[in-house]
Amino acid sequence: GAVVSQHPSRVICKSGTSVKIECRSLDFQATTMFWYRQFPKQSLMLMATSNEGSKATYEQGVEKDKFLINHASLTLSTLTVTSAHPEDSSFYICSALKLTVYGYTFGSGTRLTVV
Amino acid sequence: AQTVTQSQPEMSVQEAETVTLSCTYDTSESDYYLFWYKQPPSRQMILVIRQEAYKQQNATENRFSVNFQKAAKSFSLKISDSQLGDAAMYFCAYRSVDQAGTALIFGKGTTLSVSS
Q1: Does the bond joining A8 to the residue before it have cis omega, within 30 degrees of 0?
Q2: What pLDDT digit, counting tens, does each position of B18-62 carry?
Q3: What is the per-residue burial (b if ≥16 Cβ within 10 Å, else e) of B80-104?
């Protein structure tokens, strides 16, 4: 199979602090990972595409200095929300691409609450 | 650019009945993949079914089947013998073949409720 582990599942942080979310492909190498943001009852909004060993490509309107993405290995990508504010509160989902099959595997998501 | 449209924000069905969720898409590409994903209250994205555009035969997975109309750019999902566990948000998604490393393009989703 193709399993993606995302941690933490829930996190509460104080305004102004940073929080890191990890996304790991457990049984395959993911050259490409995607980060999404999802508001309640809405669709997934692509934030950025990360490729192992290179800089992430951010979608228009996403602040790359606020949402730092690192994809240092073929099995790990991290999203760091820097200087978090209440408006950053959301559900964040990662997805890893396994090119040997055409499906995408999703992590279980992280609910971020900034207080 | 490709777009995916789900025109039904909400749908409801009774247990054991059949329901069809609509999806249309726009693309200039001739080869691509289409997917239906389910997102239950746990919010875990689960692949329901996928279809390769070059295949004329409609994909089926147990109680789930699609009606793929390439010329009309339509990709509807039929759920037969609906169960309470089918209640979820369903997303239609598109993926380019030529741009293999690109993200899925999602529709806005349809929330399906199932009543007993």
Answers
A1: yes
A2: 999 999 999 999 989 999 999 999 999 999 999 999 998 999 999
A3: eebeeebbbbbbbbbbbeeeeebbb
> Residue A96 pairs with which residues in a beta bridge?
A33, A105
Question: Is the CB of A31 less than 8 angstroms away from the CB of B101?
Answer: yes
Minimal Cβ distance to A41: which of B42, B103, B111: B111
Residue the block writes with tokens 């409609």:
B58
**DSSP H or E stretch at residue B66:** strand B64-69
Q: Minimal Cα distance from A36: which residue of B?
A: B103
* Nearest CA distance, A23 vs chain B (angstrom): 14
Query: Which DSSP string corresponds to A25-50?
Result: ESSS--SEEEEEEE-TTS-EEEEEEE
- Tell me the DSSP string of B78-91: EE-S--GGG-EEEE
Q: How many CB atoms lie within 10 A of CB A100?
A: 8
Closest CA to A76 of A115, A114, A36, A21: A21
Over residues A59-114, the pLDDT tens digits come to: 999 999 999 999 888 899 999 999 999 999 999 999 998 766 567 899 999 999 99
